[in-house]
Amino acid sequence: MTDATLIYDDACGFCTWAAEFVAERSDVELIGFSDLDERTRERLPADYENCAHLIVGDAVYSCGAAMEQGFVRTDLGDDLAPLARFLDQ
User: Fold this and answer.
1) 3 with 56: CB under 8 angstroms?
2) I need a labelling partner for 69 at 20 to 30 A (CA). Which of 31, 35, 62, 76 fits?
């Protein structure tokens, strides 16, 4: 079972593609905005619908950081980690 959940805009084609890319290559669980339960929604920023979010344990990564963390968790993570560190600057 995964310890990470990616929350994304499931009405957006690009967002859905990116989320599915991560899910197909990792054990990250996906939840679209349309399927959010109240408990999960409470963990997100008030303006959560503006970008993706990755919940890992007690941490919540939002927007670009959420996708960076998601991509690093894929089977391509070793190759993408240097890029994520660079983008984090």
Assistant:
1) yes
2) 35
